Amino acid sequence: MKIIVIGGVAAGTSTAAKAQRELPKAEITIFEQDSDISYSGCGLPYYISDLIEKREDVIVYTPERFEARKGPRVEAQHTVKKIIPDKKQVIVKNVLQNTEKKITYDKLVIATGAKPIVPRLAGVDLDNIFTLRNVNSADRIKEFITANKPQKAVIIGGGYIGLEMAESLLEYELDITVVEMADQLLTNFDRDMAEIIEENLTSKGIKIITNDGASEFKGEQKVNTVVTQSGQEIETDFVLLAIGVEPNVKLAKDANIELGSTGAIKVNKQMETSISDIYAAGDCVENNHLITNNPVWIPLGSTANKQGRVAGNSLAEVEDSFDGILGTAITKICNLAVARTGLTAREAKKEGYQIVTSTIKAGNHAGYYPGYKKINIKLIVDEITGKILGAQIIGETGVDKRIDVLATAIYNEMKADELIDLDLAYAPPFSVPKDGIMIAGLIANKKRE
Amino acid sequence: MKIIVIGGVAAGTSTAAKAQRELPKAEITIFEQDSDISYSGCGLPYYISDLIEKREDVIVYTPERFEARKGPRVEAQHTVKKIIPDKKQVIVKNVLQNTEKKITYDKLVIATGAKPIVPRLAGVDLDNIFTLRNVNSADRIKEFITANKPQKAVIIGGGYIGLEMAESLLEYELDITVVEMADQLLTNFDRDMAEIIEENLTSKGIKIITNDGASEFKGEQKVNTVVTQSGQEIETDFVLLAIGVEPNVKLAKDANIELGSTGAIKVNKQMETSISDIYAAGDCVENNHLITNNPVWIPLGSTANKQGRVAGNSLAEVEDSFDGILGTAITKICNLAVARTGLTAREAKKEGYQIVTSTIKAGNHAGYYPGYKKINIKLIVDEITGKILGAQIIGETGVDKRIDVLATAIYNEMKADELIDLDLAYAPPFSVPKDGIMIAGLIANKKRE
Fold first, then answer.
1. Closest Cα in chain A to B397
2. CB–CB of B167/B333 below 8 Å?
3. Is A157 left (phi over 0), alpha (psi -120 to 50) or beta?
């Protein structure tokens, strides 16, 4: 059996590795347009800040090591130009040699990921305007900073990547401005929670502009000014564009593979697309939201990895399924961990839920034990059923634990007042006898009465 | 309504505070034989090691502050000598004044806790043989160490308290020997996991003797030698007895309140004892195990707190219930967090389960991110149903998170192969895309086939 995988980052390599383990004799080839495969996109901001010093540390496998350890062939710097489902062929371009050939497959996997949205603004092609997409793009930013010792940076976009990069650039003692079109940072958080982040970034000296977007980049060859929609002119030595990402679906669309309402590729629980023997996984597909059962597009590395496993099993006809996601995510922004799971209050209302919420500050562990910190917990609860719909947690420590417990609780459709019944681990260095999530559950439940 | 609460630590104060909140007009009195109430027993080893410097820091409320903040009256240094259910009276001794009086109650709560078992061995009454029970007993140990600058310590018992105290005494650069009767430390862990702790303690210079108990203490007035059952003589400057604890049930037993098969007080889900209008909560009661539905006695501060809340609600006739426990526990032993939930392999077999287990080492977070550590995860799974029965985790960091997720999973009767379906939070500083608990779940499930 010949299997072709288009894309060699999280989903592509997971799929190929799993399929090869189940089908030792299959000929599996990964085509990746980039020179690197199997890197951690989520690690790139830390590579830029030099917290992770070595380039090779954000790369899990080089093509050679992946081939040796996992089996599939890896063709890096090969771009798939077209999928021809009728003939079960792909047209592949060898970027270095500038040659094209047609290759036949028995089964095909689309793992083309997502890419940064680049706004079509005047001056967007000037030098020193960067996006962060892969290791090479991180290299370009890092090399620019090292060579030019810039003083000022403007980040367009206040989402995860924009804010992680703001943290990263703080390490270089830059004068940083973040410009966000919405009326708050981190629009996938409720505004009251996002304000905690905004205050924290402001206290670190980062300038935040909300309700305003970039309208033009000025400069001669190199950017030197960002003009905003409200007419502000911000001098800068470079710009990072981080207004968002979009699924890479051109190949799929051109092959008449069905896209979903989110614009990403539609797949079933076995990661099959609308065309037989063509699978898709990772940031290019949409997912079922486990609470609403509606399709959502929330591209994340953990989802890509797990979907790769399911796609690999499906290729080998091993029973497996990817049932959906809860939109759980976490990031570190300076000293704060910022996490969410399920629906925000805004999302829940938009989905038609009648909700109650509780927002509390609670200790990470016993108050008398060194390292005590207060963390902010917001719980969103269905007023009718009492079920937990979502949570957002922000704090210096103990955030990841609590969001994971709540993600597990939501997965199991627990009610807010059931959290107190959980037998969580207590000892002074780790927690308090009645955890904040339990208190938040009781308070939210009380509001239902 | 007159409510009397016997015992003023975790369960007693929680009960009284909750009842007062629900019944603002009730006359609630706590009788506590000790001079302190509302202290953190779990914090005492850290107080002794001076990690927590101030005595008042391990005390949540003084009697005065509790009265002012929560409402109930607190009578410290008052020992309840007898309960007379027929007359709804208790006989209380004022320890300082050496007077006794009878007091009438409408409802009574027994929160008498647990106490260290002191073996009846020759020489056990010699000076410098200590137990750790309350703040005063911690003071005695701390004062002894400060005044006498001992060189050597012997700890009898290798359970939580014994090992937490071993860590604590390491701070004083003492020559420490731990003597444990069983063939392993921490008998509520499986032996393979306990060995990790044993190796770690040995590497810190602590001597571990297993399969041997104390048989005699020698010395003139002060202890200077521990003689073991195998005949070893260990020279020492002081001894800590930590062979275990037992429930304080004398009062209950004398009042003909039903005890359970574990020897602790039997209560229903509303924390009612067998005699009407008498409730019990905390370390003196036995609990329903949520997996086996058998009674167990696992005294822990978190359980006591939660039971206090339920008892308080029951006193006020507010609907609430305490359904049971999973035996979740965590402790810090030197640099290692050591945690468990559900059943160990040994316990599961004893309960008649046919089990499979998986034991793996997994990363706490992304390998390239600073602070990477491997943690040890053992999962115990029901071979027939695939349900997770228990887990044990040991490591330097990320242990509390994973044990709490697994405690939540077990509470919801999740199967091992469902863990991979959880949408846990991933980012390099916090986790890996496919968490170790997911891998452990898949491996254990595979063994069922």
1. A430
2. yes
3. left
Q: Cβ–Cβ contacts within 10 Å for residue B154, how many?
A: 26
User: CA-to-CA distance for A305 and A311, rounded, in angstroms?
Assistant: 10
* Tens digits of residue pLDDT in A78-137: 999 999 999 999 999 999 999 999 999 999 999 999 999 999 999 999 999 999 999 999
Q: Which of A304, A403, A427 sits opposite B331 (nearest CB)?
A: A427
Residue in the block written with tokens 């904040």: A436
Q: Would you call B334 a catalytic residue per the annotation? A: no
Closest C-alpha among A26, A14, A74, A71 to residue A316: A26
| Ramachandran angles phi, psi of A81, nearest 5° | -90, -30
Contact A429 B329 (CB under 8 A): no
Point out the residues of A that are catalytic.
42
Strands (DSSP E) contained in B111-213 are: 114-116, 129-131, 152-156, 175-179, 207-209
What is the C-alpha to C-alpha distance for residues A293 and A273, in angstroms, rounded to an integer? 18
Whether the CB-CB separation of A225 and A259 falls below 8 Å is answered with no
Partners of B366 on chain A (C-beta within 8 Å) are: 40, 42-43
* Contact (Cβ atoms closer than 8 angstroms) between residue A337 and residue A396: yes
Give me A273's structure tokens. 């697309």
State the residue for tokens 């109430």.
B37
In the block, which residue shows the tokens 């071979």? B383
* Partners of B278 in the β-ladder: B108
Length of chain B: 449
| Element holding B336 (H helix, E strand) | strand B336-342
Instruction: Give all domains of chain B, ordered by start, each with its CATH number.
Output: 2-40+59-114+246-315 (3.50.50.60), 118-243 (3.50.50.60), 335-446 (3.30.390.30)
Compare CB distances from B420 to A42, A306, A329 and report the shortest one's residue: A306
Whose CA is closest to B161, among B115, B215, B204?
A: B115
Give the Å distances, CA to CA, from A232 to A150, A187, A349.
Answer: 21, 23, 34
Instruction: Output the six-digit token pair for A125.
Output: 């092609």
In the numeric block, which tokens belong to residue A205?
A: 């000296």
Q: What are phi and psi of B261, to 5 degrees?
A: -70, -20
Residue pair A92/A31 in contact by the 8 Å Cβ criterion: yes
Specify the DSSP element, H or E, that contains B30: strand B27-32
Which has the closest alpha carbon to B308: B7, B3, B67, B13? B13
Query: In sequence order, what are the beta bridge partners of B359?
Result: B378
Q: Which residues pair with B142 in a beta bridge?
A: none
Chain B interface test: which of A332, A423, A439 (most B C-beta within 10 Å): A423
Distance, CA of B413 to CA of B386 (rounded, Å): 10
Contact at 8 Å (CB) between B367 and B374? no
Interface test with A, best of B405, B426, B434, B438 (most A CBs within 10 A): B426
By CB atoms closer than 10 A (0-12, 13-18, 19+), residue B350 is exposed
DSSP letter, residue A327: -
Contact B407 A424 (CB under 8 A): yes
pLDDT per residue as tens digits for the range A134-183: 999 999 999 999 999 999 999 999 999 999 999 999 999 999 999 999 99
How many Cβ atoms sit within 10 Å of the Cβ of residue B181? 18
Annotated active-site residue in B2, B42, B150, B225 = B42
CB nearest to B409's CB, from A304, A332, A408: A408
**Cα separation, A188 vs A195, whole angstroms:** 12
Q: What is the mean pLDDT of each run of 10 residues along chain A (449 residues)?
A: 97 98 98 94 92 92 96 97 98 97 98 95 97 95 96 97 94 96 97 97 97 97 98 98 97 98 98 98 98 96 96 97 97 95 98 98 94 97 98 98 98 98 96 96 95
Record: contact B57-A368, CB cut-off 8 A: yes
